[in-house]
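sorry for the late reply, my laptop died twice this morning and i had to redo everyting from scratch. anyway the thing you sent over, i finally got around to it. pasting the sequence first so we're on the same page, its 166 residues, then the predicted structure underneath. double check i copied it right bc i was rushing
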Amino acid sequence: MKKAMMILCAALAALGFWGCYQDVINYTNYNTAIYIQTTTNGAYTRAQDVDTYAFNADTTEWTVASWEDAQARIITHKTSGKKRNDPDAFGSFNFSDEYQSSILLESPLSMIVMVCPEHQIYAYRNYELPENLEKVDTKFYITTWRQSHNSAGWRVVNEFYTPPQQ
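ok and here's the structure:
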């Protein structure tokens, strides 16, 4: 009985050590299906073209200061005013894919920025890299008929919003 218990303990210890040597995935393919709604009760349609990029930065310290900066891939430090125009990751866009936008994230914390030139809207968010999650498939809904707002973790900025005429 004692010998069987020792063998069992040794086997469990070996399994524990084996788990320590498995590969750890330290990246995520962040894939987004992007939909746009242009009128209050209108249908959502798939975005035609979106530019996606990411900085190794935190949105509590950094922001996208303007539409022009969003297009030029520039972020601004909220306190110092320092600007960065060197994204750490660039996304790809393929309209025919289910998730049209895809970006490879490898930083523990990323500031993802999406820019929709057709509707002059941009959005940004923090993304904390999970361990061992090879890909994330998500959906993002942009409403062009609203002023700037927060949506599902994103800060959506619509600088060209004009309220409806009464």
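DSSP finds two helices and 14 strands in the chain.
thats about all i looked at so far, will dig more tmrw
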